[in-house]
Write a structure and sequence with these properties.
The complex is a heterodimer of chains A (339) and B (609). With 339 residues, chain A is of the alpha/beta class. Helices cover 32% and strands 19% of the residues of chain A. Chain A folds into 2 domains: 1-212 and 304-339, Rossmann fold (3-Layer(aba) Sandwich), CATH 3.40.50; 228-293, no CATH class. Chain A is built from 11 helices and 12 strands. In chain A, strand 9 (243-248) and strand 10 (251-256) form a beta hairpin. Chain B is an alpha/beta fold and 609 residues long. Chain B has 3 domains: 4-223, Pyruvate-ferredoxin Oxidoreductase, domain 3, CATH 3.40.920; 230-497, Thiamin diphosphate (ThDP)-binding fold, Pyr/PP domains (Rossmann fold); 509-608, Rossmann fold. Chain B contains 22 helices and 22 strands. In chain B, strand 14 (371-374), helix 16 and strand 15 (398-404) form a beta-alpha-beta unit. The longest helix of chain B is centred in the middle third of the chain and has 17 residues, at 198-214. Chain B is globular, with a radius of gyration of 26 Å. Chains A and B meet through strand 1, strand 2, helix 2, helix 4 and helix 10 of A and helix 1, strand 9, helix 10, helix 12 and helix 14 of B. Strand 12 of chain A pairs antiparallel with strand 9 of chain B.
């Protein structure tokens, strides 16, 4: 197996996103992470496949020097599923925007989660339709004014984390486009996860929704308005690392360490590997200003994967059957001979 | 009364009852028994759209027609020699299919006031239907079954489920069928899980047989001699089963694993069900969340190196349109099976039609050519599926294979082939070292090469956007036109590897009767009948729609008049006229969700002679 660097994953195509687009960061994170993915999995880069649908972020495959498929709107998940079932040895990465994955592709998205097929879905969430120049998306906040909602939207948005966990997804993580190391950390965790991984990357659309996530992602406020969750670590955040999360009855509560007798021992410890959908759902639902926005790997649990099930069944049936060729199949069952 | 056994050349029997009466099973058992006896055979089930429509209503009638003969049979038959009607609704729904000489067997117990009312009769049903002159056998089938099984220990519901076996026993007597096959079937079906059901079922079918003998059910019984088919191993096969097996055969020949991504839809579901049974041959089936995921997962599997298939019917094909365009654009091998049903929209799901032709030819955005083929009989579905896969893999092109509800659910005896007699399939897999230029083409076929993930140095990108030969995005006007022409040329060149159009009868003359797809048997029978009447006419049947066989224009030009018979409003006729406007093409159409009747075709063609 060859050793790779970032350069091996860069195609010769000029990247054509708008200057300042958040997608650049996710592309860079992927190209930086894949050498390590190949090394960990012991695979050559020709076993890496990148699939996308339609939208700005779905242009990503052209910038990757891998096998790649830029498909049609909403269908990347279905195509990635076919690829993975046909050849489970491949490391399959999907790039989809919020419209691609959650609007037109919503059905495929939830069914991938239900099947737990081992694909890595990078959900670029900029809460706007960028490629069609600024219409609201299924993650646009209620009341958002866009070209197709000049008086504000009158529909509630999806929180992708809620959707993933609601469909009993086995892996959900969240990152910000201005925190490259965390994005890489999430991608590596996704690669290690055996099953469907959804990585929600909050990305900025500099043209049609500038500041899409700035209320939580701006450097000055990020430490106080987000919490980065890591397995085995206390749920502590804040510039001064003095705020934490505790359970107060059935709800999460933000507390300050040192106030009202709260000590570090009272703070919850994150365990993404525990099949604790209730707590993980509460973490995924948190949003500023009531709570910090949760970042990092929120849920990462083991469950049987679809492709393993398909292959195991093929092997099991083949082993039991006496029919191993089409000639034998044609002559099986009820036949008669004309002499 | 003297009982005679009369030899008959052919007989059509229709079993009809409530959809819960087991008539499909009765019909198929009678058919399989006749197949093993060596009769020529064709069957067609006629299901209601509802799984269980209200009991006793005309909407809930389920039928199964069997045509047996002492020679090869082309169709399930127009009109029947015997009708089994398990209730008044079944009689009402099927009376129009009775021959003047037909025998009608009805279950007297179901012809009570309630049953007659549900079927909408107010008086004597036979008089109301104008069939009182037929031979009518009124038999208390329910009571006789109850008596037969009085000591069986079965509950009354289970006893009533055996009514169909009593009927089958009677039919076996009337048509001189030995009961051994039925006994074997009963033992095979119940030996593992319900051995207690073996004896009662055997008893009731035997009692039915004996009852018919004792009452001299018919003054005469009938014997249909075996046909004398070619030597070999035979089996009875439905179109959906044959189609699934043809795909598996192609996968084996090509050395590429078979992947089928599909969503259940009548009448195509049987193919997915059949493929799902054969995981022992490496088949991967995926029941997807919708039709679009069906074709998209197949396109993904194709990109990854599998022989990929999706199966559907008209409405499902509509949903797949955009993804079909993706397959055209990415030039990946893909087989799309459309088992046609009556449309538009949901239409009549259980009824047959040939009305998706325009959709498969034109139903995509942009210049979007692909290969279209059509199967012409249940057994032919095997060869056509094999060939569709071969063309897809060797020409790097999506192929739509048209079947029809009539073919998918219909069955016929099939002489089992040997795979050694089938041609090799050589997928166009990339060789040598990269870099790989995905849209570089073979000069002879214009087909590109196939490189899939895992192949070193061949990394490349495909997608729905227009690209140049190197696989790089291009909005260059000249490049777009070049690629449009090359994709069209590639499809046209498939004709080089297809057989010529054959003519049955004189190679030139006044009239050529043309058909495509599942009308094959009916047209053949009609033409043969006209020839017996001394008429001279020729016949040609199209298995290949796009591209047409290379000699099509040469063949068609040798006839003064072309009669195109099809189960739509003239779609294939328009297609031919569009390409060969100088020909005198007339249409013979039927759009009733039913097959042609041989009689109607004879009449229609006669008018043009």
């Amino acid at each position: 197996m060859a050793k790779y660097t970032l350069k091996d994953f860069k195609s010769d195509q000029e990247v054509r996103w708008c200057p300042g687009c958040g997608d650049y960061a996710i592309l860079a994170a992927l190209q930086k992470t894949l050498p390590q993915v190949c090394e960990e999995k012991g695979i050559d880069k020709e076993k890496v496949v990148v699939v996308s649908g339609i939208g700005c972020s779905s242009r990503l495959p052209y910038y990757m020097n891998t096998y790649a498929f830029h498909s049609i709107h909403g269908r990347a998940t279905a195509i990635a599923t076919g690829i993975k079932v046909a050849n489970p040895e491949l490391s399959v990465w999907q790039a989809s925007g919020d419209g691609d994955a959650l609007a037109i592709g919503g059905n495929h998205f939830i069914h991938a989660l239900r099947r737990n097929i081992d694909i890595n879905i990078m959900l670029f969430n900029n809460r706007i339709y960028g490629m069609t120049k600024g219409q609201y998306s299924p993650t646009s906040p209620f009341g958002m004014i866009t070209k197709t909602s000049p008086y504000g939207t009158v529909e509630a948005p999806f929180n992708p984390g809620e959707l993933v966990l609601g469909a009993k997804g086995t892996f959900f993580a969240r990152g910000l486009d201005n925190d490259l190391p965390l994005c890489q950390e999430i991608m590596l965790a996704s690669s290690r996860h055996h099953g469907t991984s959804v990585m929600e990357f909050r990305t900025n659309c500099v043209i049609f929704n500038n500041g899409s996530h700035s209320e939580v992602s701006d450097k000055e406020v990020r430490a106080d308005r987000t919490i980065t969750l890591r397995a085995g670590e206390k749920m502590i955040f804040g510039k001064n690392r003095d705020k934490g999360l505790v359970l107060d009855g059935w709800k999460l509560k933000v507390v300050t360490i040192g106030q009202d007798g709260v000590t570090e021992d009272d703070i919850l410890t994150h365990d993404p590997k525990a099949d604790n959908l209730g707590l993980q759902m509460m973490l995924a639902q948190m949003n500023w200003p009531e709570y910090p926005l949760a970042l990092g790997v929120i849920r990462d649990v083991e469950a049987p994967t679809y492709e393993d099930g398909v292959c195991a069944q093929v092997d099991r049936v083949a082993e039991k059957s006496k029919i191993h060729s089409v000639d034998a199949l044609l002559r099986s069952g009820s036949t008669w001979e004309v002499k | 009364m003297q009982h005679k056994v009369i030899d008959r050349d052919d007989v059509v029997i229709r079993f009809a009852g409530d959809s819960g009466d087991g008539m499909q099973l009765t019909g198929s058992l009678f058919a399989n028994m006749s197949a093993i006896y060596g009769n020529g055979l064709s069957t067609f089930p006629d299901y209601p759209a509802e799984i269980r429509a209200p009991k006793g209503t005309v909407a809930g009638v389920s039928g199964f027609q069997v045509h047996i003969a002492n020679r090869k049979v082309n169709t399930p038959g127009d009109y029947c020699d015997m009708l089994v009607a398990m209730n008044p609704a079944a009689l009402k729904a099927n009376a129009k299919w009775l021959k003047r000489t037909a025998l009608v067997l009805v279950n007297q117990d179901a012809f009570d006031d309630n049953g007659l009312k549900k079927a909408g009769f107010t008086g004597n049903p036979f008089e109301e239907l104008g069939i009182e002159d037929r031979t009518i056998l009124v038999v208390p089938i329910t009571k006789l079954t109850e008596n037969s099984l009085a000591d069986s220990g079965l509950d009354i519901a289970s006893v009533h489920k055996c009514k169909n076996m009593f009927t089958l026993g009677m039919a076996c007597f009337i048509y001189n069928r030995p009961l051994e096959y039925i006994y074997n079937y009963i033992e095979g079906k119940f030996s593992k899980k319900h051995p207690e059901m073996i004896a009662p079922n055997k008893k009731v079918v035997t009692d039915g047989f004996n009852y018919a003998a004792n009452i001299q059910a018919e003054a005469n019984t009938y014997h249909v001699a075996p046909a004398h088919p070619e030597k070999g191993i035979y089996r009875n096969i439905t179109g959906n089963q044959a189609l699934a097996w043809g795909l598996i055969a192609a996968s084996e020949k090509a050395g590429r694993p078979l992947f089928c991504g599909s969503y259940p839809i009548t009448p195509a579901t049987g193919i997915l069900e059949e493929l799902a049974l054969h995981k022992n041959l490496g088949v991967k089936t995926m029941q997807t969340e919708d039709e679009i995921a069906g074709i998209c997962s197949a396109i993904g599997a194709s990109f990854a190196g599998d022989l990929a298939v999706t199966t559907t019917s008209g409405p499902g094909l509509s949903l797949k349109s955009e993804a079909l365009g993706l397959a055209v654009m990415t030039e990946l091998p893909l087989v799309v099976v459309d088992v046609q049903r009556a449309g538009p929209c949901t239409g009549m799901p259980t009824k047959t039609e040939q009305s998706d032709l325009n959709e498969v030819l034109y139903g995509r955005n942009g210049e979007s050519p692909l290969v279209v083929m059509a199967a012409h009989s249940p057994a032919d579905c095997f060869d056509r599926a094999f060939e569709a896969a071969k063309v897809a893999l060797e020409h790097m092109v999506p192929v739509i294979l048209l079947s029809e509800g009539f073919l998918g659910n219909g069955s016929e005896p099939w002489r089992v082939p040997s795979m050694a007699d089938y041609p090799a399939i050589t997928p166009r897999i990339a060789e040598g070292e990269g870099p790989f230029r995905p849209y570089e083409r073979d000069a002879a076929t214009m087909a590109r090469r196939w490189a899939f993930p895992g192949m070193k140095g061949m990394e490349h990108r495909v997608g729905g956007l227009e690209k140049n030969h190197a696989g790089v995005l291009s909005n260059d006007p000249a490049n777009h036109e070049l690629m449009v022409r090359e994709r069209a040329r590639k499809v046209a060149l498939v004709a080089d590897s297809l057989p010529d159009l054959a003519v049955d009868g004189p190679e030139s003359g006044d009239v050529l009767v043309v058909g495509w797809g599942g009308t094959y048997g009916h047209i053949l029978s009609a033409v043969e009948e006209l020839r017996q009447d001394g008429k001279t006419l020729s016949r040609a049947h199209f298995d290949y729609i796009c591209p047409l066989p290379k000699n099509t224009e040469a063949v068609l030009s040798r006839f003064r008049k072309i009669i195109v018979c099809e189960l739509n409003s003239g779609q294939f006729a328009s297609y031919l006229k569009g390409q060969m406007p100088h020909l005198d093409i007339v249409s013979c159409n039927k759009v009733q969700g039913q097959t042609f009747l041989v009689r109607d075709l004879v009449e229609a063609i006669s008018k043009e002679l």
